Protein backbone atom coordinates (compact mmCIF):
# COMPACT_ATOMS: atom_id res chain seq x y z
CA UNK A 1 0.00 0.00 0.00
CA UNK A 2 1.80 3.14 -1.20
CA UNK A 3 1.26 6.51 0.46
CA UNK A 4 -0.21 9.31 -1.63
CA UNK A 5 2.35 11.37 -3.51
CA UNK A 6 3.52 14.48 -1.69
CA UNK A 7 2.34 17.70 -3.26
CA UNK A 8 3.30 21.30 -2.66
CA UNK A 9 0.27 23.27 -1.55
CA UNK A 10 -0.23 26.47 0.40
CA UNK A 11 -0.25 26.43 4.18
CA UNK A 12 -3.69 28.00 3.81
CA UNK A 13 -5.02 25.05 1.78
CA UNK A 14 -8.67 24.54 2.68
CA UNK A 15 -8.73 21.13 1.03
CA UNK A 16 -6.03 19.70 3.33
CA UNK A 17 -7.32 21.67 6.32
CA UNK A 18 -7.83 18.57 8.51
CA UNK A 19 -5.32 16.15 6.96
CA UNK A 20 -2.84 16.31 9.85
CA UNK A 21 -5.65 15.89 12.38
CA UNK A 22 -6.90 12.86 10.44
CA UNK A 23 -3.47 11.25 10.66
CA UNK A 24 -3.32 11.95 14.41
CA UNK A 25 -6.80 10.49 14.89
CA UNK A 26 -5.76 7.31 13.10
CA UNK A 27 -2.68 6.95 15.32
CA UNK A 28 -4.83 7.37 18.41
CA UNK A 29 -7.65 5.01 17.45
CA UNK A 30 -5.99 2.04 15.84
CA UNK A 31 -3.28 -0.41 16.81
CA UNK A 32 -0.45 -0.54 14.24
CA UNK A 33 1.00 -3.75 15.68
CA UNK A 34 -0.09 -7.36 15.32
CA UNK A 35 -1.30 -8.82 18.61
CA UNK A 36 0.07 -12.05 20.05
CA UNK A 37 -1.06 -13.88 23.18
CA UNK A 38 1.88 -15.66 24.79
CA UNK A 39 1.97 -18.88 26.84
CA UNK A 40 1.62 -16.75 29.97
CA UNK A 41 -1.72 -15.44 28.73
CA UNK A 42 -0.51 -11.85 28.34
CA UNK A 43 -1.09 -9.91 25.13
CA UNK A 44 2.01 -8.52 23.46
CA UNK A 45 2.53 -6.80 20.15
CA UNK A 46 4.86 -7.62 17.30
CA UNK A 47 7.00 -4.55 16.75
CA UNK A 48 9.09 -4.36 13.55
CA UNK A 49 12.86 -3.96 13.89
CA UNK A 50 15.61 -2.98 11.46
CA UNK A 51 16.71 -6.58 10.90
CA UNK A 52 13.11 -7.90 10.69
CA UNK A 53 13.58 -10.06 13.77
CA UNK A 54 10.24 -10.57 15.56
CA UNK A 55 10.16 -8.50 18.77
CA UNK A 56 7.18 -8.82 21.10
CA UNK A 57 6.53 -5.99 23.54
CA UNK A 58 3.79 -5.14 25.99
CA UNK A 59 1.80 -1.90 25.66
CA UNK A 60 3.72 -0.55 28.64
CA UNK A 61 7.06 -1.30 26.96
CA UNK A 62 5.93 0.32 23.71
CA UNK A 63 4.87 3.54 25.45
CA UNK A 64 8.07 3.62 27.51
CA UNK A 65 10.13 3.29 24.32
CA UNK A 66 8.19 6.13 22.66
CA UNK A 67 8.70 8.30 25.73
CA UNK A 68 12.44 7.59 25.75
CA UNK A 69 12.64 8.71 22.13
CA UNK A 70 10.91 11.99 23.01
CA UNK A 71 13.33 12.55 25.89
CA UNK A 72 16.34 11.80 23.67
CA UNK A 73 15.09 14.33 21.10
CA UNK A 74 14.71 16.98 23.82
CA UNK A 75 18.21 16.28 25.12
CA UNK A 76 19.68 16.68 21.64
CA UNK A 77 17.76 19.94 21.23
CA UNK A 78 18.78 21.38 24.62
CA UNK A 79 22.28 19.93 24.71
CA UNK A 80 21.86 18.66 28.26
CA UNK A 81 20.28 15.83 30.22
CA UNK A 82 16.55 16.08 30.90
CA UNK A 83 15.44 15.05 34.39
CA UNK A 84 12.34 17.06 35.25
CA UNK A 85 9.35 17.46 32.97
CA UNK A 86 6.23 19.59 32.82
CA UNK A 87 3.67 17.58 30.83
CA UNK A 88 1.62 19.58 28.34
CA UNK A 89 -1.63 17.66 27.89
CA UNK A 90 -4.91 18.04 25.99
CA UNK A 91 -7.81 19.33 28.06
CA UNK A 92 -9.94 16.34 27.08
CA UNK A 93 -7.74 13.70 28.72
CA UNK A 94 -6.91 15.33 32.03
CA UNK A 95 -7.88 12.29 34.10
CA UNK A 96 -6.13 10.87 37.15
CA UNK A 97 -5.65 7.52 35.44
CA UNK A 98 -3.98 9.15 32.43
CA UNK A 99 -1.65 11.25 34.58
CA UNK A 100 -0.83 8.21 36.72
CA UNK A 101 0.05 6.15 33.62
CA UNK A 102 2.09 9.02 32.22
CA UNK A 103 4.06 9.38 35.47
CA UNK A 104 4.74 5.63 35.60
CA UNK A 105 6.00 5.59 32.01
CA UNK A 106 8.14 8.69 32.61
CA UNK A 107 9.74 7.04 35.66
CA UNK A 108 10.54 3.94 33.60
CA UNK A 109 12.17 6.23 31.04
CA UNK A 110 14.35 7.76 33.74
CA UNK A 111 12.66 11.15 34.20
CA UNK A 112 10.19 12.74 36.61
CA UNK A 113 6.98 14.61 35.83
CA UNK A 114 6.90 17.49 38.30
CA UNK A 115 3.81 19.25 36.96
CA UNK A 116 1.17 19.04 34.24
CA UNK A 117 -0.78 21.78 32.49
CA UNK A 118 -3.55 21.67 29.90
CA UNK A 119 -2.87 23.20 26.49
CA UNK A 120 -5.89 25.52 26.70
CA UNK A 121 -4.89 26.78 30.16
CA UNK A 122 -1.38 27.54 28.91
CA UNK A 123 -2.78 29.41 25.89
CA UNK A 124 -5.28 31.46 27.92
CA UNK A 125 -2.65 32.41 30.50
CA UNK A 126 -0.72 34.30 27.82
CA UNK A 127 -3.23 37.16 27.99
CA UNK A 128 -4.42 39.37 30.82
CA UNK A 129 -8.13 39.95 31.14
CA UNK A 130 -9.72 42.56 28.89
CA UNK A 131 -12.09 43.38 31.74
CA UNK A 132 -11.69 44.63 35.27
CA UNK A 133 -10.73 41.87 37.72
CA UNK A 134 -13.46 39.30 38.11
CA UNK A 135 -14.90 36.22 36.50
CA UNK A 136 -14.38 35.88 32.75
CA UNK A 137 -15.33 33.19 30.24
CA UNK A 138 -12.71 32.32 27.63
CA UNK A 139 -12.96 30.17 24.52
CA UNK A 140 -9.55 28.81 23.46
CA UNK A 141 -9.49 27.81 19.80
CA UNK A 142 -6.29 25.89 19.04
CA UNK A 143 -5.93 24.80 15.44
CA UNK A 144 -2.66 23.93 13.80
CA UNK A 145 -0.96 20.77 12.60
CA UNK A 146 -2.48 17.75 14.31
CA UNK A 147 -4.27 19.85 16.93
CA UNK A 148 -7.85 20.99 16.81
CA UNK A 149 -8.97 21.53 20.37
CA UNK A 150 -11.76 23.88 21.39
CA UNK A 151 -12.06 24.61 25.09
CA UNK A 152 -14.24 26.82 27.26
CA UNK A 153 -12.66 28.11 30.45
CA UNK A 154 -13.66 30.35 33.32
CA UNK A 155 -11.25 32.47 35.28
CA UNK A 156 -12.18 32.96 38.89
CA UNK A 157 -9.14 32.54 41.16
CA UNK A 158 -7.49 30.51 38.43
CA UNK A 159 -8.34 29.07 35.03
CA UNK A 160 -10.81 26.19 35.08
CA UNK A 161 -11.96 24.09 32.12
CA UNK A 162 -15.73 23.87 31.70
CA UNK A 163 -15.77 21.84 28.48
CA UNK A 164 -13.32 20.73 25.81
CA UNK A 165 -13.68 19.13 22.39
CA UNK A 166 -10.83 17.49 20.49
CA UNK A 167 -9.91 14.36 18.50
CA UNK A 168 -12.30 15.51 15.78
CA UNK A 169 -10.13 14.02 13.05
CA UNK A 170 -10.71 14.52 9.34
CA UNK A 171 -14.37 15.05 8.35
CA UNK A 172 -13.97 13.38 4.95
CA UNK A 173 -12.52 10.27 6.57
CA UNK A 174 -15.22 10.36 9.25
CA UNK A 175 -17.85 10.54 6.51
CA UNK A 176 -16.46 7.57 4.60
CA UNK A 177 -15.87 5.43 7.71
CA UNK A 178 -19.42 6.03 8.95
CA UNK A 179 -20.93 5.18 5.56
CA UNK A 180 -18.94 2.06 4.71
CA UNK A 181 -20.12 -0.31 7.50
CA UNK A 182 -23.67 -0.07 6.14
CA UNK A 183 -22.36 -1.31 2.80
CA UNK A 184 -19.93 -3.94 4.04
CA UNK A 185 -21.41 -5.03 7.35
CA UNK A 186 -18.10 -4.51 9.22
CA UNK A 187 -16.97 -2.62 12.30
CA UNK A 188 -14.55 -0.34 10.47
CA UNK A 189 -13.22 1.32 13.62
CA UNK A 190 -11.80 -2.02 14.77
CA UNK A 191 -10.00 -2.68 11.48
CA UNK A 192 -6.68 -0.83 11.50
CA UNK A 193 -5.77 -1.73 7.92
CA UNK A 194 -9.16 -0.55 6.69
CA UNK A 195 -8.75 2.77 8.50
CA UNK A 196 -5.26 3.24 7.05
CA UNK A 197 -6.48 2.36 3.55
CA UNK A 198 -9.40 4.80 3.85
CA UNK A 199 -7.15 7.63 5.02
CA UNK A 200 -4.76 7.09 2.09
CA UNK A 201 -7.67 7.19 -0.37
CA UNK A 202 -8.90 10.41 1.26
CA UNK A 203 -5.49 12.03 0.85
CA UNK A 204 -5.19 10.92 -2.78
CA UNK A 205 -8.56 12.51 -3.50
CA UNK A 206 -7.56 15.75 -1.74
CA UNK A 207 -4.30 15.89 -3.68
CA UNK A 208 -6.16 15.52 -6.97
CA UNK A 209 -8.56 18.35 -6.07
CA UNK A 210 -5.66 20.51 -4.92
CA UNK A 211 -3.96 19.99 -8.29
CA UNK A 212 -7.03 21.22 -10.16
CA UNK A 213 -9.38 18.26 -10.75
CA UNK A 214 -13.02 19.38 -10.81
CA UNK A 215 -14.32 16.19 -9.22
CA UNK A 216 -12.71 13.07 -7.81
CA UNK A 217 -14.11 9.60 -7.26
CA UNK A 218 -13.11 7.78 -4.08
CA UNK A 219 -13.32 4.00 -4.31
CA UNK A 220 -13.27 1.96 -1.10
CA UNK A 221 -12.81 -1.81 -1.40
CA UNK A 222 -13.22 -4.33 1.42
CA UNK A 223 -14.13 -8.01 1.62
CA UNK A 224 -14.52 -8.22 -2.16
CA UNK A 225 -17.03 -5.37 -2.23
CA UNK A 226 -16.62 -1.73 -3.13
CA UNK A 227 -18.35 1.60 -2.66
CA UNK A 228 -17.76 4.74 -4.72
CA UNK A 229 -18.19 8.38 -3.71
CA UNK A 230 -17.67 11.44 -5.92
CA UNK A 231 -16.59 14.70 -4.32
CA UNK A 232 -15.70 18.18 -5.56
CA UNK A 233 -13.66 21.03 -4.13
CA UNK A 234 -16.57 23.23 -3.01
CA UNK A 235 -18.29 20.34 -1.20
CA UNK A 236 -15.09 19.37 0.62
CA UNK A 237 -14.18 22.92 1.63
CA UNK A 238 -17.66 23.44 3.09
CA UNK A 239 -17.40 20.11 4.91
CA UNK A 240 -14.06 21.17 6.39
CA UNK A 241 -15.41 24.54 7.57
CA UNK A 242 -18.61 22.97 8.92
CA UNK A 243 -16.35 20.67 10.93
CA UNK A 244 -15.09 23.76 12.78
CA UNK A 245 -18.61 25.12 13.26
CA UNK A 246 -19.83 21.86 14.77
CA UNK A 247 -16.83 21.73 17.11
CA UNK A 248 -17.53 25.24 18.43
CA UNK A 249 -21.24 24.50 18.87
CA UNK A 250 -20.49 21.23 20.64
CA UNK A 251 -18.13 22.92 23.08
CA UNK A 252 -20.63 25.69 23.90
CA UNK A 253 -23.43 23.15 24.29
CA UNK A 254 -21.44 20.86 26.59
CA UNK A 255 -20.53 23.83 28.76
CA UNK A 256 -24.10 25.14 28.75
CA UNK A 257 -22.87 28.59 27.70
CA UNK A 258 -24.38 30.90 25.08
CA UNK A 259 -21.96 32.38 22.56
CA UNK A 260 -22.89 35.88 23.76
CA UNK A 261 -21.58 34.98 27.22
CA UNK A 262 -18.05 34.36 25.96
CA UNK A 263 -15.85 37.30 26.98
CA UNK A 264 -12.67 36.43 25.07
CA UNK A 265 -11.57 34.15 22.24
CA UNK A 266 -7.91 33.11 22.38
CA UNK A 267 -6.44 31.95 19.06
CA UNK A 268 -3.60 29.41 19.05
CA UNK A 269 -2.04 27.50 16.16
CA UNK A 270 -0.97 28.52 12.66
CA UNK A 271 -4.28 27.54 11.03
CA UNK A 272 -6.01 30.32 13.00
CA UNK A 273 -4.35 32.74 10.57
CA UNK A 274 -6.31 31.33 7.62
CA UNK A 275 -8.94 33.95 6.65
CA UNK A 276 -11.73 31.39 6.16
CA UNK A 277 -11.05 29.88 9.60
CA UNK A 278 -11.32 33.31 11.20
CA UNK A 279 -14.46 33.84 9.16
CA UNK A 280 -16.04 30.83 10.88
CA UNK A 281 -15.11 32.24 14.30
CA UNK A 282 -16.60 35.62 13.32
CA UNK A 283 -19.92 33.88 12.70
CA UNK A 284 -20.03 33.20 16.45
CA UNK A 285 -18.03 35.98 18.14
CA UNK A 286 -17.38 39.70 17.64
CA UNK A 287 -13.90 40.69 16.50
CA UNK A 288 -13.26 42.80 19.62
CA UNK A 289 -13.31 39.61 21.71
CA UNK A 290 -10.44 38.01 19.78
CA UNK A 291 -7.06 37.69 21.51
CA UNK A 292 -4.49 37.36 18.75
CA UNK A 293 -1.99 40.17 19.30
CA UNK A 294 0.54 37.36 19.76
CA UNK A 295 0.83 35.51 16.44
CA UNK A 296 -1.27 32.35 16.99
CA UNK A 297 1.41 30.34 15.17
CA UNK A 298 3.87 31.19 17.97
CA UNK A 299 1.57 31.44 20.98
CA UNK A 300 2.10 27.92 22.38
CA UNK A 301 5.89 28.00 22.04
CA UNK A 302 6.15 31.47 23.62
CA UNK A 303 3.76 30.57 26.43
CA UNK A 304 5.63 27.33 27.06
CA UNK A 305 8.95 29.16 27.39
CA UNK A 306 7.45 31.72 29.74
CA UNK A 307 5.93 28.98 31.88
CA UNK A 308 9.25 27.08 32.04
CA UNK A 309 11.09 30.22 33.11
CA UNK A 310 8.58 31.02 35.85
CA UNK A 311 8.39 27.43 37.12
CA UNK A 312 12.17 26.97 37.19
CA UNK A 313 12.63 30.28 39.01
CA UNK A 314 9.92 29.53 41.58
CA UNK A 315 11.01 25.98 42.43
CA UNK A 316 14.70 26.36 41.59
CA UNK A 317 14.82 23.30 39.35
CA UNK A 318 15.46 23.09 35.59
CA UNK A 319 12.44 21.77 33.68
CA UNK A 320 11.38 21.28 30.09
CA UNK A 321 7.88 21.03 28.64
CA UNK A 322 7.01 17.77 26.93
CA UNK A 323 3.79 17.07 25.06
CA UNK A 324 2.23 14.17 26.94
CA UNK A 325 1.90 10.89 25.09
CA UNK A 326 -1.64 10.34 23.95
CA UNK A 327 -2.35 6.92 25.40
CA UNK A 328 -5.23 6.64 23.00
CA UNK A 329 -3.98 3.64 21.04
CA UNK A 330 -7.20 2.13 22.25
CA UNK A 331 -6.41 -1.30 20.88
CA UNK A 332 -3.51 -1.45 23.33
UniProtKB/TrEMBL annotation:
SUPFAM superfamilies: Actin-like ATPase domain (SSF53067). Pfam families: HSP70. One of its GO terms (molecular function) is ATP binding. Keywords: ATP-binding, Nucleotide-binding. Signal peptide: none annotated. The keyword RNA-binding does not apply. This is Uncharacterized protein. It comes from Dendrobium nobile.
Amino acid sequence: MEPPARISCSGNCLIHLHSAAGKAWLQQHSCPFQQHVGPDGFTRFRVPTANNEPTFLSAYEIFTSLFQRQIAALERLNGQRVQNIVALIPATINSRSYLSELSTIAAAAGVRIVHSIQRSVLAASAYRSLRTPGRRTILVFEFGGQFLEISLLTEDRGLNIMAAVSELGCPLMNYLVSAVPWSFGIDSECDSLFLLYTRLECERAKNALCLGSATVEIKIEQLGMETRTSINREWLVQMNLNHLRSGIMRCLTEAGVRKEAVDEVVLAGASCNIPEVRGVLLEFFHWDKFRCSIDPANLMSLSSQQFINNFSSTFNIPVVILEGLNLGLYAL
